[in-house]
Amino acid sequence: MPASPPTLSDSDVVRLYHARSKHRFEAYAAGPAMLDWDAQPAPFRHYDGAPTVALPLLGAPGASAPLRAVQDLPFPCAGAPHLPQRPGLESIGTLLHLSLGITAWKVMGPDRWAVRANPSSGNLHPVEAWLIARDIPGLADGVYHYRPEDHVLECRALDRTAGSDTPRLGLALSTAMWREAWKYGERGFRYCQLDVGHAASALAHAAALLGWSLAEQPVPTACLAHRLGLDRDADFPGSRHPQVEREEAELLLAVGLDGHGPASATQALQPPADDTRWFGRASLLDPLPRYRWPLIDDVAAATRHRAEGTAPATAAVAPPWQPSAQLAGFDSSAARTMLSRRSAQRFDASHRMSRAAFHSVLHVLGDSMRPSSLWPHASGMVAALFVHRVDACAPGLYLLTADGCDDAGAFATSGEHVETIGDGLTLRLHRKLEQVELHRLARSLHCHQDIASTACLALGLIAPFGVIAANPAAYRDLFRLAGQTGQALYLLAELLGLRGTGIGCFFDDPVHEALGLSGSSHQPLYHFTIGLPIDDARIESAPAYPADRALHQPANRTPT
């Protein structure tokens, strides 16, 4: 009998996937040969037949005085001297509007697309958001799906629970991976995890404005999927390729509503009782998928949390940051900053970034290098910066490391020390380059995209991969950390009067070589650019939600 093929371990699957999904000068990662944008997967999912709860919009007439005051708080809002807002439909509506809601509709010719508070690779938005409510005024206990195009909650499950008079709120994220895989093929799994990080960070910044806090809960992936009803086959459309229509459970966050930190949300994950009532059937994402990417299914399975405690133990999610004191003159309300976030399409190639602004960028990057700040796997994260035009900073390739990172020496052995930044950060000049040479290098490494060379700076987040061997689920965490950092950079850029753009397309191994690295101990995960944007006058903007929204949505139909 022929020998059975060897069985790969989960960590082997992760390494195989990461190698297969790399872009190289000679070939891009496997993806669709062509795209029919008229057949793009549905950008929003809804559950037909599920009762709905309309959420108040930010700044809607009749808003309570406390929430009106919150909207005027300055950004960033860490340590804002205000009492936590009471949980209810109004505060939850504010939370979701500022983090995951639509902020505008863009129109160019016959094309129309939504812009949201959280960015997404290719503006495809694979992340879906959920609420698990206990004793929240205005909400029956149960599981709710957030529908951003209408700013409503859909009740998926109604729990039969005894009231405790102690409000509890859990937030969960899932991904419809086909939305990314449809365009990006095998690399789509990476982008889904980046988008989970963006969404978690957006939620954390909005929660801080309300005086709330978030913490990830250590739960098995299958348990979260069961609680959200993602494993209910009958509730999802049938398909020759079922994975196209299904969602992957990603993350459970506990919400601290009283200013003293989140209480555990794991109790909310108790298996639904026999008398739990389920509502709705998922809408169709793609009736005629043309490609299959089984490697995405393999890496998703290999990186799931298998048992209680394998996820970070109540790790704080994206604690809001404070820019350097030198930026005190940049004044913007938190709400306006969050809602004005956009991705730049072009940059002014002559604009220079101030030294103070550059230092704030370094401090935000530093937050991604501290294990206690975001994820327990952050130790050893290094930022590579392509500095084009920054005051008092010579053009070149720089490296930013944090004290205590055991692997930082792999990058910095030949680097010239430039300065020590506060909070134990060290900036080194790795390679001094002439402006034209740097322009060519940055552009070529970033899939020949001009935005990497015309911005004031481009940067890459380089992650330690040693943790994958012992914990394959950490692969998701590393990308999520990078996405959370990107969200903070987006908000900082808005505060500076600039604009950012995340870059998921770069040539992995050539970036490695440009940094003088060998082996596979570190890998680039996410790149980002910041500069002065040049707006496209052809693109028009329309309001996110109609002013008379009450005439365009169903009345609340929450079951009791």
TrEMBL record:
Alphabetized PANTHER family for the sequence: NITROREDUCTASE FAMILY PROTEIN (PTHR42741)
GO MF annotation, one: oxidoreductase activity
Name of this chain's protein: Oxidoreductase
Gene3D superfamilies per the UniProt record, alphabetical: NADH Oxidase (3.40.109.10)
InterPro entries (alphabetical): Nitroreductase-like
Domain of life of the native organism: Bacteria
